[in-house]
User: Which sequence fits this backbone?
């Protein structure tokens, strides 16, 4: 009995009222988005997510995937659900029309992606990884590769994978050892890749692997890695499928969660060598890979939001039904929804999720501007914001999703710890999100060193200056003034942390490395506060205007208040750790651990 | 065969409607609206007839204000070839709607009009029947299966206690049940294409239909809240209460 309904109302609120469709107006090569179009797109994606994808979530967890003679069997219904998604045209939602996509903005695509992940995270990983492969090919592949492979990747008829990790090369990709030997116009690849998401399956006709490997003349380390396209089936000049390539799944991982997603070990070139095609120039593979890291990390953040939303919905549904205990002064037993501590948990789940949804969609809107604005200065400014916000979305949304899924279990009590209602699955599934696409520790370093300290805090300060405007607006409204004060204090704390790191980090490289994780957590809470403050302002305006949807705006106002009064103050708790330095961590001898 | 499919924009079935404070009707300002679910089955059936080669053209029609063009876009995304709105800012009564649809049928000359058996807002269940009467066409209401057969249609109708199959000569008006089909999942490219399609418009005056109300609305109110139930100790007590107090047995 698990429930999921795509949160189309809140998604529209964020896109139309927090970001504003006018922000997307005038962007080149993108379809114009009207409120009616947005509603139609979200409603139809939501219908497929709710009715077709969501009911399979538990099936995927219970059945998992199995490997027999190199072929992967998916959970029942997964292949059909994937095909329904492809036939619906959802895979190419924001790919350019010249490649068969629909040319909608990334912010609209992101809203649908949240739904796919909320409905069925394990299945949603297939298009998510395909998107990474598609972007790489689109940006760096030559005309002949694009001609042969791009159309079917955009449509989703073929899926794509990202093959980076090897047993000795995880976060440190300089250790990649997979070899690529020139062979005529192509290469022959030999080596083994691990943790390949959706690396083998039969839901699509072909699988296009994008593989990091070394050519024989390559220098050691990061600078010697090239990117290759390796299809499962070779593709003839006329586009038809040819021989099976020497690419084979040799094992499936037995994982904590996302059982419906086949995580493969892939052997390249066990026999004659796997035919691969160089993407772009040799030795630039890692550079190419990092050009799409923002998108990939952003999508993981959305995944966190999607699963957190589902955990919240499920917990509320249970709390409404479960009758247990009395309210102070009451005589009859009440649904646990009426107990203060249960309400606190549910509201914490909800407030964090709504804040991170807003931040993730805002970052997506910046991606649209960065890619499509006709104005070069606007593009560059938006790109800096994308760079700044991406690690926040990735790490903070996924850490909060883990907390939210855990709170979801807590709301259910004992029924949350047993598998019957499908509650533990959400925690098990989403637990990977802080790990893959760059661990959250790496996100914190990236944010602190490269995104904040490197430019002296300038880009961050630009965002915080906008938040100052929200403080003023909140203080100008007597009913919200207290929220403005709370936000002002949190902003001051974050600014203080930034100044401190700028000062001390200059002399001691260990200072920012030790402080990075609490600093990122603090920044995430404050940026969430900025957007929930704006949400409160919009909700008040709509309430005053007597807008018909009073239920939504009233709930939004309560949620925003709770965020500002109960969640945001956690930001202050990180200050001592950010300033605390690393003395004892460095002092303790290795043998004392 | 040419098919005219009539669709109506109504408050979404998921929305809990509220009565306006002055009792003058249901509050629809900023409420989520959608296509009447019965009409979804009508447009779905029309598009299936065209996909099967039985119908050559599907024209979607609605009667309403500018906002109601949203459901015409949905109809186009389902696969209707053209869409047409009879303009009326004020909501019309079933009689006026049926006259407007009759005028559209006169202009379009369809062989078949498909529409939901009723709309979920006022549940009138009148327009299809009135339309057939204005046009002097055959009608088959409450259809749960429609099969073309030579120059006629075989329609399975939901009736009290079962189903009845009737043959109707064309042209005809058929009103649809939810059991008729399962409306498709609309594809994203269809939504994008529908966005760019033109919608034809017709004024009430152009088709000489008088939209003025014939009914006087006295008031709209919420149904009285249900009273709490009561548990009795034994079956005997239940029988006693049902017999003597409720007097139902």
Assistant:
């Amino acid at each position: 009995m698990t429930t999921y309904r795509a949160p189309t109302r809140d998604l529209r609120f964020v896109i139309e009222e927090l970001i504003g469709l006018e922000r997307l107006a005038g962007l080149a090569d993108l379809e114009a988005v009207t409120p009616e179009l947005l509603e139609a797109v979200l409603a139809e994606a939501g219908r497929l997510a709710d009715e077709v994808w969501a009911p399979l979530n538990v099936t995927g967890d219970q059945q998992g995937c199995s490997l027999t003679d190199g072929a992967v069997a998916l959970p029942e219904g997964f292949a059909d659900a994937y095909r329904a998604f492809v036939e619906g045209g959802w895979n190419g939602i924001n790919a350019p029309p010249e490649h068969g996509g629909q040319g909608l903005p990334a912010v609209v695509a992101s809203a649908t992606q949240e739904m796919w992940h909320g409905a069925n995270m394990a299945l949603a990983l297939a298009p998510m990884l395909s998107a990474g492969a598609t972007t790489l090919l689109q940006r760096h592949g030559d005309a002949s590769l694009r001609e042969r492979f791009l159309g079917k990747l955009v449509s989703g008829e073929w899926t794509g994978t990202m093959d980076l990790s090897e047993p000795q090369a995880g976060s440190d990709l300089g250790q990649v050892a997979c070899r690529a030997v020139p062979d005529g116009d192509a290469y022959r690849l030999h080596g083994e890749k691990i943790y390949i998401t959706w690396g083998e399956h039969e839901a699509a006709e072909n699988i296009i692997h994008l593989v990091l490997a070394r050519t024989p003349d390559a220098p050691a380390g990061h600078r010697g890695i090239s990117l290759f396209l390796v299809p499962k089936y070779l593709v003839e000049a006329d586009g038809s499928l040819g021989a099976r390539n020497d690419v084979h799944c040799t094992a499936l991982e037995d994982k904590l969660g996302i059982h419906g997603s086949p995580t493969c070990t892939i052997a390249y070139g066990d026999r004659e060598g796997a035919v691969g095609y160089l993407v772009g120039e040799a030795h630039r593979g890692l550079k190419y890979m990092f050009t799409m890291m923002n998108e990939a990390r952003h999508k993981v953040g959305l995944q966190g939001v999607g699963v957190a939303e589902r955990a919240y919905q499920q917990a509320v549904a249970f709390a409404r039904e479960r009758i247990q205990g009395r309210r102070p002064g009451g005589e009859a037993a009440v649904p646990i929804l009426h107990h203060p501590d249960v309400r606190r948990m549910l509201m914490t789940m909800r407030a964090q999720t709504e804040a991170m949804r807003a931040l993730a969609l805002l970052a997506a809107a910046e991606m649209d501007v960065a890619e499509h604005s006709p104005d070069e200065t606007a593009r560059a400014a938006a790109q800096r914001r994308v760079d700044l916000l991406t690690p926040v979305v990735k790490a903070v949304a996924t850490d909060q999703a883990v907390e939210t899924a855990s709170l979801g279990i807590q709301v259910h009590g004992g029924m949350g710890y047993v598998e019957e209602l499908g509650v533990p699955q959400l925690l098990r599934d989403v637990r990977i999100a802080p790990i893959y696409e760059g661990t959250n520790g790496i996100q914190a370093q990236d944010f602190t060193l490269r995104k904040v300290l490197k430019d002296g805090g300038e880009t961050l300060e630009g965002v915080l200056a906008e938040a100052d405007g929200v403080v003023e607006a909140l203080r100008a409204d007597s009913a919200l003034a207290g929220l403005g004060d709370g936000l002002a204090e949190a902003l001051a704390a974050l600014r203080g942390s930034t100044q401190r790191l700028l000062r001390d980090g200059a002399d001691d490289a260990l200072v920012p490395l030790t402080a990075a994780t609490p600093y990122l957590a603090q920044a995430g809470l404050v940026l969430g506060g900025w957007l929930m403050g704006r949400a409160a302002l919009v909700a008040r305006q709509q309430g005053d205007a007597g807008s018909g949807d009073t239920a939504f705006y009233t709930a939004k106002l309560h949620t925003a208040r709770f965020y500002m009064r109960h969640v945001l103050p956690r930001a202050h708790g990180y200050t001592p750790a950010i300033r605390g330095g690393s003395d004892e961590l460095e002092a303790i001898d290795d043998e004392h651990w | 065969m040419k098919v005219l499919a009539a669709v109506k924009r109504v408050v979404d079935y998921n929305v809990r409607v509220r009565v306006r404070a002055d009792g003058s009707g249901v509050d629809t300002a900023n409420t989520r609206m959608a296509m009447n679910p019965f009409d979804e089955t009508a447009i779905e059936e029309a598009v299936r007839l065209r996909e099967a080669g039985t119908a050559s053209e599907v024209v979607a029609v609605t009667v309403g204000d500018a906002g109601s063009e949203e459901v015409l876009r949905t109809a186009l995304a389902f696969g209707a070839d053209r869409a047409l709105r009879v303009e009326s800012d004020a909501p019309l009564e079933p009689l006026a709607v049926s006259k407007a649809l009759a005028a559209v049928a006169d202009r379009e000359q369809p062989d078949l009009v498909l529409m939901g058996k009723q709309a979920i807002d006022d549940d009138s269940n009148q327009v299809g029947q009135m339309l057939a009467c204005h046009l002097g066409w055959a009608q088959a209401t409450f259809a749960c299966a429609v099969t073309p057969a030579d120059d006629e249609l075989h329609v399975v109708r939901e009736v009290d206690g079962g189903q009845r199959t009737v043959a109707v000569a064309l042209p005809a008006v058929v009103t649809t049940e939810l059991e008729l089909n399962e409306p498709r999942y609309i594809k994203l490219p269809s939504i994008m294409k529908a966005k760019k399609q033109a919608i034809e418009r017709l004024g009430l005056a152009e088709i000489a239909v008088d939209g003025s109300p014939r009914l006087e609305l006295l008031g709209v109110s919420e149904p009285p809240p249900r009273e709490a139930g009561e548990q009795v100790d034994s079956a005997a007590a239940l029988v006693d209460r049902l017999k003597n107090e409720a007097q139902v047995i």
Summary: The domain at 292-434 of chain A is CATH 1.20.140.10 (Butyryl-CoA Dehydrogenase, subunit A; domain 3). The two ends of chain A are 45 Å apart (CA to CA). Chain A touches chain B through 25 residues (CB under 8 Å).
